[in-house]
Amino acid sequence: MSSIGASYAPVNLMQKKLKEKITKREKEREEKDQSVAVVETSLATAGRNSNKVYPSRSSSYNEQSIKS
Asked: Could you tell me where the Basic and acidic residues compositional bias lies (predicted)?
């Protein structure tokens, strides 16, 4: 019986290392996706800032400046 357990130990260790490796890669992928999302949103807002539309002056503003 002990020979079966002893022969299974390396397989069990390999499975454990593989599982840790997979979880590590998943965490790295999630962090990468989050950082890419932050960059995309910052680029999207930067584009909006360069295309500002300024309203024209209203007639009431012109009337106030003439009266003063």
From this structure: 23-34
